[in-house]
Amino acid sequence: MTVTLAGKTAVITGSTSGIGYAIAKALAEAGASVVINGRQAERLSTAVTRLRREVPGAQVTGVAADLGSSAGADRIIESSPHVEILVNNVAIFSPKDFYDITDEEWEQYFQVNVMSGVRLSRHYARWMTEKGWGRILFNASVTGGFIPGEMVHYGATKAALLGLSRTLAEFLAGTGVTVNSFLPGPTYTEKTEAFLKASGKKSGKREDEQEKEVFEHHLPSSLIKRFIRPSEVADLVVFLASEQASAITGAGLRVDGGIIRSLL
Question: What 3 state SS string does the chain have?
């Protein structure tokens, strides 16, 4: 099966590194023009340059915007008013005890993790519907159904995205616009790598030893017993954005290494 997205434009939020960057790269490799996003102009410029180097000939632009407010969403929309593919990937997360999470932090998490997707989807879905083709995707994370106790606020927003994705798919029924969620499990991003290196300096253990311990003691339900690579998540997103996935909508598809014990 050959997937081509030539002639399509994709916006990927939160895409200067990690899963978001991997998605932008994979979409560019499939022929899409990509718009990447980050809060910091310097990091965004570095990511744009890197992507152009790694995918020669790729059409890449960047928009610096903080999606914790409507102004940030407006900045992306003004830069790219019409796109065929929207990947709502941006999110903030940090371990914190439930008793210590303030109302202000809850509000911030919902603004960035949920409302950013609401605002962008509300705009782009109209144009996609008029065109009769479009793809809206949400990074709902495996924590939407497997919430760690120290990240209640993060998990709650991801669960909200699962609901948003399904109900938006219902709303757009019959329009040619599909809406789906993808649910990555524990992924080996730059942050994961930095954490393991810092931890290894203290413990004297190699990264592979630490990875083995993580999946033996903390994530034993994983069936692949390793971190997922960002490119593996990106491969699923490219498929869902393709013409070949036109019959898939209203779904939440896991790329989690089998960490959730479920038949569906």
Answer: CCCCCCCCEEEECCCCCHHHHHHHHHHHHCCCEEEEEECCHHHHHHHHHHHHHHCCCCCEEEEECCCCCHHHHHHHHHHCCCCCEEEECCCCCCCCCHHHCCHHHHHHHHHHHHHHHHHHHHHHHHHHHHHCCEEEEEECCHHHCCCCHHHHHHHHHHHHHHHHHHHHHHHCCCCCEEEEEEEECCECCHHHHHHHHHHHHHHCCCHHHHHHHHHHHHCCCCCCCCCECHHHHHHHHHHHCCHHHCCCCCCEEEECCCCCCCCC
